[in-house]
Amino acid sequence: MGRPRQWLRAVYRTRSPLITQIADGEVPPDGPTGCADFTGSISCPAVVVNMLHHLDPQPGERILEIGTGTGYNTPLLAERVGAVNVTSIEIDETLAERAATAPHAPGPAPHLVVGEGEEGYPPGAWYDRMISTAAVRQVPQVWIDQVRPGGVILTPLDSPFQCDGLALLVADGYGGANGAFVGAVDFMTTRGQREPRSYAELGWPTWAEHRVTVEEGRQRVRAES
Question: Where are the domains of the chain?
Answer without folding.
Answer: 53-194
